[in-house]
């Protein structure tokens, strides 16, 4: 969508006065809704609604051989799909560039072993390991995709049930794994340290978080920071535009602060959450 | 009303997938109790108010609810009609299906029988009895909980009635009592029923109680997990166990990948394996390998308890010298992977009293079985069926239970029953369902029928069959239509009109596949109403037929062929003899006689043509057993007489089959049911070639034509029987002819070796062969008289059907032969005769003798085990020599024949040599006095004779 | 041909407890998203489909524009996690293209295209969980979404699958498990009120004798589906309407 000059100015002024178009302050987030276990045949899933942004994440697990140089580690792979439901521009291969960008940022955010310990996914050293496929489906785009995606991914991974291994039979090269049939009997992943992405935009002289679609258009430059346990896991600048060094540090600070708060809130909610399959999209 | 079930399953690649399934909960499931007003009792519920379950444990009459284990273990008890008014929960039903398919099928049979009053209650979809799985609950516990919940629900739902839960699981019983559900074990229940002796016998003894501290006689078995681990690591090997027939302490295990089977000896070695089980063996180190023993050891055990004789025999076994050349890999069984216990025929060993009896199976490779019975006196006179339940370590014999009695030992009916069981021939009465598919009498031909068929009732059709035949499949006619042109028609009973696809009668016929002929009795493939009446082309009656009409010239060349359904009226149903007489009698000039003469002429031309093409004429010992119609005992055994008319009918049947084969292949290249006779491999012919060479003939076996020609040439004018014997040998070299769907093989493989035709099928006997019914259906589609149905055109289904047909045909053949063998034995009982015969085969330790008079083959042993032999065996020339006397194939001999009934389950002929005399071996000829003792004169005047033809060892080539 | 496991047990119930002529549970909601002009979500048994409609708006590529009718552009895509085995690509393979075309076919038959010349209507369908009957669910969802977008249609287009159980009893609305284990499946998209068939598709082999009864079953199923959809539409309209006050005028 395109904004007129007047609209852009309006937004700029609002940000300067710490009173954005929808009434938030610069560090405020729009209301979020989180649901888990929507996709029942995936091992874990979550759906996050951040005002207009709607993201659905599903986690699937497969058995795979670990990389030869990392025999003790499992694998994790991200895949993002922008559905045409969001905008007609995403039809066919239209949304691919955005999808690839998202997937890459997520991969780099999860790369460090401090964020996500892949060793937990190992079954048999050098022979078998779990591979997690995290599939993100963007259903509606209302701005601030990165945050929504990262929160949804974290929630989905939290709820993921990894099948518990009962026996491993080794017969030469042939490895056979037996797991318990009952899905309740499972392992869970530790998601404390999973990174949370925050998008910080510079509009005018100030930085804001959680930009809406219109605000994204006005931004001079945007930075996405991934914060995990007080450390930065990845920093990427997105969009067009450039930032000054000091501005950059400002953004980072802001991002850092916001991310930690966000993380705390999310973890608190995740502990309480009950999977409620009967609602989903029907509410 | 809707929940989901989640579970994880492994897929083919080895990945784990989470499966989610829907599970709907309904409110329209009826409880099945007839008096219940809430549920509209469906008509399908067989539960009956009238029948009462009287068990003295419970003061009220009640309905029974069963646990899964009770069904799995005690199916024999449940099949008894005393147990009725049983509710089978769907949870239990599914579990039975999952755990044991054979028991599931038997349960289905009981469920379908309305007089047994069984009902399936779908408790896992009923809104009141559905229970979601608790977290951390095992599946078995969940099932038990569902069962208890359903029982409680029933008790609350129909308060006027009572329900009893029968389960063998102690924990389940405990929890049930806590819920106020009346419950007991199956053993207790049966004990407290009236007239329970049979039921008690049939109880399967899974948990046995040893009366005293019994010593363990056998080593323990490893657990399944340990066995699998051992096999994976290569320390243990899996294979099928085969017991030795002569030595009860020896056996073999054939392992995949081993060139020789592993030898097992002694109790340690065999360790409670039963013939057919899949076992895990541990192979000893090479220095401990032994050779199979030459001695014959029989299990002479009288009772359970002592094993002294076993220990003695084991010692004897160990003491037999090890022959270096014969050393085989030796080992011992460490565990059983899968038991393959079946039902076994046999008798009770007579000499013990009391509750426990020893059962001796007819099959010598199965050990004796201990059974518990209260009817020992009665059962001792009967042939029984017993099945094995378990073999505890402390017991010398496996424990089993009696299933049913077959009849008096030695009576013909019992023997027939045994033969049928051993050859897996379905011979039960046709069920209600099947009989309901039959047309209602009186059967009339309607106008509809007449419109759809060609009316041939005016044509002079006649049928020619063996005497006493009631199922007339085929009829012929022949008439002159123009100068030099004859119209020949073959009319086959239109069975497919009455047997519609997919009906109960069709499924039953497909399962039976063929009519089985035993001596004195016949197991029909279709019920008598059809086989002997409505389908049979009886003389003077209007019948439906499927006609194959040719226009031929006088040289039997086919000018045109057509097929259509018709209505015929056979003018006369003749026997072969009568037809022959009619042809020969020049005074008869009616239409039938003329038509027969023409048919005969044409048949001769056709036969000549066939033989020129290389068709084989083989011989077999077809005997006819004459039975006394009152006592049903065999009076005499004689060879069948063949007339020209036999050959005439045969030729036209062959021609019809070939014409039909061509037609159906043309229209259905994918799924036409054909019959092929594979060419035997050259090595099969070795005995024939050697025998021929010895007589001075060169038998060519490279192709059918040459074989036929060389057999024709191999004639010695002074002894015409030699040629017949050569043909008999040739028959033994053949492979079986089989059915197959045309889409599964290449055209070259369609060849029928015996008939020397490229294409063949069976069309002419639908009353007694199921394959013919299928061919009729295909042909009917081509003629437009019938529509197809999916399975007819499905290659896969046809292939499966063919497999069953081939299997059943083989079994029917073996059963027929076994029956003839038994009756021949019966005939020779108590008789002692010297007979003339010829040597058919020369073996390493015996001579196979053929007695042409009775068509009987018996074995003359030249070497007894552990005795020195007088004979020298020359393998290359196939001869045995003792002093001056040399035995070759086809040499004439005279032997003494006697029936040895010492082992009542394995009667055999004892054969002694009379001529040529060999000192120290042969016996002197019987004098006239001896012969008079046993009168071989069979004809008793005044008694009616019933001629029952038994088709004996003829390899069917058509 | 797969072994014919009993899809209908002796008691007349299918593997999941339904009777042969019962549909699976259908739940649907319209107006799920705010950005598209019309959106709908439908659940048939475990199959879940989201549909979004944009339009009518200006055509994006001038060449495709028609002077007398609007063009309908459909896209069918399955989420990567929708099947039991993870799919590599959500769309772009042949099956998706074929489905898109079939969807377009079904919608073209009911949408009053001559009201919007020189325009384009986009219909996007996303499958979240595929458990048999994907195409019918898409058609039904698309119908609802189109109604939600306020685009005039001649009548409802509904779709349903049917198959043959035990070789002779027609079964309605087959799930994925039944599809795999059982025999041929017939998919029918129809206009229930007028009884016309828009699209018919069949897998495997069907015997001609059985085709009519299976077809009839499927058409009955479509009628049932239409009743359910209609109910949902009425509920949705009265909800929305009551918010703005015009529900009072209709009652």
Automatic annotation (TrEMBL), chain A:
Location in or out of the cell: Cytoplasm; Nucleus, Nucleolus
CDD domains, per database record: RNase_PH_RRP42
Domain Exoribonuclease phosphorolytic stretches: 29-163, 194-257
Gene Ontology molecular function: any one: mRNA 3'-UTR AU-rich region binding
This protein's GO CC annotations: cytoplasmic exosome (RNase complex); nuclear exosome (RNase complex); nucleolus
PANTHER family: EXOSOME COMPLEX COMPONENT RRP42, EXOSOME COMPLEX EXONUCLEASE RIBOSOMAL RNA PROCESSING PROTEIN
Protein's name in the database: Ribosomal RNA-processing protein 42
Annotated source species: Dendroctonus ponderosae (Mountain pine beetle)
Automatic annotation (TrEMBL), chain B:
Predominant location category: cytoplasm
Cofactor(s) required, per the database record: Mg(2+)
Residue span of region Disordered: 929-958
SUPFAM superfamilies according to UniProt: Nucleic acid-binding proteins, PIN domain-like
Entry keyword set: Cytoplasm, Exonuclease, Exosome, Hydrolase, Nuclease, Nucleus, RNA-binding, rRNA processing
PIN domain segment(s): 62-174
GO CC term, one of those recorded: cytoplasmic exosome (RNase complex)
Family: Belongs to the RNR ribonuclease family.
Protein name: Protein DIS3 homolog
Origin species: Dendroctonus ponderosae
Species lineage: Eukaryota, Metazoa, Ecdysozoa, Arthropoda, Hexapoda
UniProt gene name: 109537214
TrEMBL record, chain C:
Molecular-function GO term, any one: RNA binding
Gene Ontology terms: cellular component: cytoplasmic exosome (RNase complex); nuclear exosome (RNase complex); nucleolus
Name of the gene this protein is made from: 109536809
Exoribonuclease phosphorolytic domain boundaries: 22-152, 156-220
PANTHER family on file: EXOSOME COMPLEX COMPONENT, EXOSOME COMPLEX COMPONENT RRP41
GO aspect biological process, one term: nuclear mRNA surveillance
Compartment(s) of residence: Cytoplasm; Nucleus, Nucleolus
Species of provenance: Dendroctonus ponderosae
Subunit structure: Component of the RNA exosome complex.
Family (UniProt): Belongs to the RNase PH family.
Coarse class of the protein's main subcellular location: cytoplasm
Name of the protein described by the UniProt record: Putative exosome complex component RRP41
Summary of the function given for this chain in its UniProt record: Non-catalytic component of the RNA exosome complex which has 3'->5' exoribonuclease activity and participates in a multitude of cellular RNA processing and degradation events.
Keyword terms, alphabetized: Cytoplasm, Exosome
């Amino acid at each position: 969508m395109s904004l007129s000059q007047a609209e852009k100015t309006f937004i700029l002024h609002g940000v300067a006065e710490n009173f954005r178009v929808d009434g938030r302050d610069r560090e405020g987030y729009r209301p979020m809704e989180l649901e888990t276990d929507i996709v029942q045949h995936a091992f874990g899933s979550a759906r996050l609604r951040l005002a207009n942004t709607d993201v659905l994440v599903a986690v699937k697990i497969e058995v795979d051989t670990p990389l030869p140089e990392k025999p003790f580690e499992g694998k994790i792979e991200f895949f993002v799909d922008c559905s045409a439901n969001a905008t007609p521009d995403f039809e066919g291969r239209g949304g691919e560039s955005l999808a690839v960008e998202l997937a890459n940022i997520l991969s780099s955010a999860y790369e460090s072993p401090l964020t996500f310990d892949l060793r937990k996914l190992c079954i048999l050293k050098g022979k078998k390991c779990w591979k997690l496929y995290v599939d993100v489906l963007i259903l509606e785009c209302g701005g601030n995709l990165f945050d929504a995606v990262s929160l949804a991914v974290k929630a989905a991974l939290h709820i993921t049930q990894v099948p518990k291994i009962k026996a491993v039979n080794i017969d030469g090269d042939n490895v056979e794994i037996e797991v318990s049939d009952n899905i309740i009997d499972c392992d869970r992943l530790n998601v404390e340290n999973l990174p949370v992405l925050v998008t910080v935009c510079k509009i005018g002289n100030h930085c804001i978080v959680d930009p809406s679609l219109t605000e994204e258009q006005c931004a001079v430059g945007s930075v996405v920071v991934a914060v995990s346990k007080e450390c930065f896991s990845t920093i990427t600048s997105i969009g067009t535009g450039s930032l000054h060094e000091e501005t950059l540090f400002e953004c980072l600070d802001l991002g850092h602060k916001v991310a930690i708060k966000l993380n705390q809130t999310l973890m608190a909610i995740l502990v309480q959450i009950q999977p409620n399959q009967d609602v989903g999209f029907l509410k | 009303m809707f929940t989901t079930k989640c579970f994880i399953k492994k897929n083919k690649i080895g990945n784990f997938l989470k499966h989610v399934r829907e599970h709907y909960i309904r409110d329209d499931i009826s409880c099945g109790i007839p008096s219940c007003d809430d549920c509209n009792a469906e008509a399908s519920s067989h539960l009956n108010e009238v029948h009462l379950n009287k068990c003295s444990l419970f003061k009220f009459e009640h309905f029974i609810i069963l646990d899964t284990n009770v069904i799995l273990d005690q199916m024999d008890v449940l099949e008894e009609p005393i147990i009725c008014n049983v509710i089978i929960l769907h949870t239990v039903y599914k579990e039975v299906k999952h755990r044991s398919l054979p028991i599931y099928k038997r349960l289905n049979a009981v469920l379908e029988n309305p007089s047994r009053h069984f009902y399936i209650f779908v408790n896992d979809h009923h809104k009141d009895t559905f229970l979601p799985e608790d977290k951390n609950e095992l599946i078995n516990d969940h099932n038990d909980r569902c069962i208890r919940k359903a029982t409680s629900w029933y008790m609350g739902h129909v308060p006027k009635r009572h329900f009893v839960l029968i389960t063998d699981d102690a924990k389940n019983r405990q929890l049930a009592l806590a819920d106020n559900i009346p419950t007991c074990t199956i053993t207790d229940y049966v004990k407290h029923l009236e007239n329970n002796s049979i039921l008690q016998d049939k109880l399967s003894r899974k948990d046995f109680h040893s009366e005293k501290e019994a010593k363990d006689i056998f080593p323990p078995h490893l657990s399944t997990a340990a066995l699998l681990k051992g096999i994976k690591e290569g320390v243990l090997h899996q294979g099928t166990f085969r017991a030795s027939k002569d030595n009860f302490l020896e056996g073999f295990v054939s392992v995949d990948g081993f060139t020789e089977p592993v030898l097992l000896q002694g109790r340690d070695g065999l360790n409670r394996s039963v013939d057919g089980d899949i076992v895990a063996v541990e192979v000893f180190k090479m220095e401990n390998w032994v050779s199979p023993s030459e001695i014959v050891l029989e299990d002479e055990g009288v009772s359970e308890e002592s094993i002294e004789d076993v220990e003695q025999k084991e010692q004897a076994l160990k003491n037999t010298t090890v022959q270096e050349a014969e050393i085989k890999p030796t080992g011992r069984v460490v565990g059983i992977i899968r038991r393959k216990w079946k039902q076994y025929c046999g008798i009770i060993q007579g000499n013990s009293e009391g509750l426990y009896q020893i059962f001796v199976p007819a099959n010598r490779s199965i050990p004796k079985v201990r059974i518990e019975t209260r009817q020992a006196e009665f059962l001792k006179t009967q042939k029984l069926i017993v099945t094995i339940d378990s073999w505890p370590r402390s017991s010398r014999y496996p424990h089993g239970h009696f299933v049913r009695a077959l009849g008096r030992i030695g009576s013909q009916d019992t023997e027939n029953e045994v033969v049928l069981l051993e050859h897996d021939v379905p011979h039960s009465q046709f069920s209600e369902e099947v009989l309901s598919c039959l047309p209602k009498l009186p059967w009339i031909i309607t106008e509809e029928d007449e419109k759809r068929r060609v009316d041939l009732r005016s044509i002079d059709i006649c049928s020619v069959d063996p005497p006493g035949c009631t199922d007339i499949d085929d009829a012929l006619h022949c008439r002159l239509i123009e100068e030099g042109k004859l119209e020949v028609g073959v009319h086959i009973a239109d069975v497919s009109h009455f047997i519609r696809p997919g009906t109960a009668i069709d499924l039953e016929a497909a399962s039976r596949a063929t009519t089985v002929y035993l001596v004195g009795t016949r197991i029909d493939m279709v019920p008598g109403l059809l086989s002997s009446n409505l389908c049979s082309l009886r003389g003077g009656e209007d019948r439906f037929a499927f006609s194959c009409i040719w226009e031929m010239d006088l040289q039997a060349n086919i000018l045109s062929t057509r097929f259509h359904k018709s209505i015929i009226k056979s003018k006369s149903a003749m026997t072969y003899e009568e037809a022959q007489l009619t042809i020969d009698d020049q005074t008869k000039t009616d239409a039938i006689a003329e038509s027969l003469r023409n048919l005969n002429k044409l048949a001769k031309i056709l036969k000549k043509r066939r033989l020129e093409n290389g068709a084989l004429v083989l011989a077999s010992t077809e005997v006819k057993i004459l039975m006394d119609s009152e006592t049903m005992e065999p009076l005499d055994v004689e060879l069948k007489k063949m007339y020209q008319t036999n050959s005439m009918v045969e030729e036209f049947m062959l021609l019809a089959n070939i014409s039909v084969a061509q037609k159906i292949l043309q229209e259905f290249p994918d799924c036409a049911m054909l019959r092929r006779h594979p060419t035997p491999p050259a090595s099969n012919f070795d005995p024939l070639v050697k025998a021929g060479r010895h007589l001075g003939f060169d038998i060519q076996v490279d192709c059918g034509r040459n074989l036929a020609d060389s057999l024709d040439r191999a004639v010695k004018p002074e002894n015409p029987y030699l040629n017949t014997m050569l043909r008999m040998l040739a028959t033994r070299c053949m492979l079986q002819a089989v059915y197959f769907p045309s889409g599964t093989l290449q055209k070259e493989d369609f060849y029928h070796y015996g008939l020397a035709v490229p294409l063949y099928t069976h069309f002419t006997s639908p009353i007694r062969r199921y394959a013919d019914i299928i061919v009729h259906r295909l042909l009917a589609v081509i003629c437009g008289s019938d529509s197809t149905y999916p399975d007819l055109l499905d290659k896969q289904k046809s292939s499966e059907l063919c497999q069953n047909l081939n299997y059943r045909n083989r079994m029917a053949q073996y059963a027929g032969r076994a029956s003839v063998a038994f009756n021949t034995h019966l005939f020779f009982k108590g008789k002692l005769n010297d007979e003339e015969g010829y040597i058919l085969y020369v073996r390493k330790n015996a001579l196979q003798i053929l007695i042409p008079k009775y068509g009987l083959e018996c074995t003359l042993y030249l070497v007894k085990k552990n005795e020195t032999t007088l004979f020298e065996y020359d393998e290359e020339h196939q001869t045995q020599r003792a002093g001056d006397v040399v035995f070759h194939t086809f040499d004439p001999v005279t032997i003494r024949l006697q029936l040895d009934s010492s082992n009542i389950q394995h009667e055999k002929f004892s054969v002694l040599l009379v001529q040529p005399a060999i000192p120290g071996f042969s016996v002197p000829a019987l004098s006239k006095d001896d012969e008079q003792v046993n009168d071989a004169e069979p004809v008793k005047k005044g008694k009616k004779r019933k001629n029952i033809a038994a088709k004996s060892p003829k390899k069917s080539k058509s | 041909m797969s072994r014919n496991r009993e899809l209908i047990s002796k008691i007349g119930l299918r593997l999941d407890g339904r009777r042969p002529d019962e549909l699976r549970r259908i739940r649907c909601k319209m107006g799920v998203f705010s950005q598209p002009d019309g959106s709908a979500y439908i659940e048939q048994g475990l199959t879940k489909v989201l549909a979004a409609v944009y339009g009518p708006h200006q055509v994006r590529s001038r060449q495709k524009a028609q002077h007398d009718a609007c063009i309908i552009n459909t896209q069918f895509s399955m989420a990567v996690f929708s099947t039991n085995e993870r799919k590599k690509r959500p769309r772009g393979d042949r099956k998706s293209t074929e489905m898109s075309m079939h969807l377009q076919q079904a919608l073209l038959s009911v949408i009053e295209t001559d009201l919007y010349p020189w325009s384009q209507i986009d219909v996007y369908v996303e499958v979240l969980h595929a458990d048999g009957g994907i195409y019918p669910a898409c058609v039904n969802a698309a119908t609802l979404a189109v109604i939600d977008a306020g685009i005039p249609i001649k009548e409802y287009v509904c779709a349903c699958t049917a198959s043959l159980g035990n070789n002779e009893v027609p079964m309605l609305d087959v799930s994925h498990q039944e599809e795999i284990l059982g025999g041929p499946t017939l998919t029918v998209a129809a206009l229930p009120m007028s009884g016309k068939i828009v699209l018919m598709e069949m897998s495997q082999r069907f015997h001609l004798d059985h085709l009519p009864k299976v077809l009839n079953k499927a058409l009955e199923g479509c009628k049932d589906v239409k009743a359910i959809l209609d109910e949902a539409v009425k509920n949705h309209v009265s909800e929305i309407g009551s918010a703005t006050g015009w529900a009072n005028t209709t009652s």
